[in-house]
Specification:
- By secondary structure, the protein is α+β, with helices and mostly antiparallel strands.
- The protein is built from six helices and four strands; from the N terminus they run αααβαβαβαβ.
- A four-stranded antiparallel beta sheet has the order 1-2-4-3.
């Protein structure tokens, strides 16, 4: 019987350790990259409220009336007069009882006309009355917060920016970063209790009518 004099070769413990370290660094880099992307989208989503707030204030300073509620928009050459649904334009608020819906092309409610009037006046980009989209893909609303959240959650006619179809995880992250982290208090609130739902349903869309999360501007 012959025996080979060749030694069996394999990885040493040092080599295995080096490979494991490299794999760990790669995984850590991927996870860190995902975190950076998430945080970037989070900030971009919230910053929509700041951009729209500046646009609304700019429009109001220029024309002395709220966009969307502007009954003289046609005479200025910037679109259909406010409140095309027929319930008293120029009443000092953006929105009627049927306004808490995502805006599409050719919509005629005040909270949709607000986008076309802001665009025609040069304050924001986009097309017609269509709602802008936030960084996580859902539509953005602009108008009376109580119409989006309901009077039980927000009982005044403040103007606000609302994001639709955020997950509980994203809603909590925005609220923690820019407010108190609670779905029913502070300046950021939602149609559903995302602060408690996040524990068991982090990737589920915020519950409640319309699935909205709003902030006052």
């Amino acid at each position: 019987m012959r025996y080979s004099n060749k030694r069996q070769t394999g990885f040493t413990l040092v080599e295995i350790a080096i490979v494991l370290v490299i794999i760990g660094l790669l995984l850590g880099g991927v996870l860190k990259g995902q975190e950076l992307i998430f945080n970037s989208r989070l900030k971009a989503t919230f910053n929509i409220s700041r951009e729209l707030s500046a646009a609304v204030n700019g429009y109001q300073d220029r024309y002395r009336i709220l966009p969307g509620d502007d009954d003289a928009a046609n005479s200025r050459g910037i679109g259909t007069p406010g409140n095309a649904t027929g319930a008293g334009p120029a009443n000092g608020v953006i929105g009627n009882s049927d306004d808490a819906i995502p805006c599409v092309a050719n919509a005629t409610t005040e909270s949709c006309l607000v986008f076309s009037q802001l665009r025609a006046a040069g304050f924001i980009t986009g097309t017609g009355t269509e709602a802008p989209r936030h960084a996580f893909g859902g539509p953005v609303g602009l108008g009376r917060i109580d119409l989006y959240l309901g009077t039980a959650i927000w009982n005044t006619q403040n103007t606000g920016v609302c994001w639709q179809n955020l997950t509980n995880k994203i809603a909590v992250a925005i609220d923690l970063a820019f407010d108190d982290g609670k779905s029913g208090t502070g300046s950021i609130r939602g149609t559903g209790p995302y602060d408690t739902d996040v524990a068991t349903k982090p990737d589920v869309i915020v519950s409640g009518a319309g699935n909205w999360v709003c902030t006052q501007i």
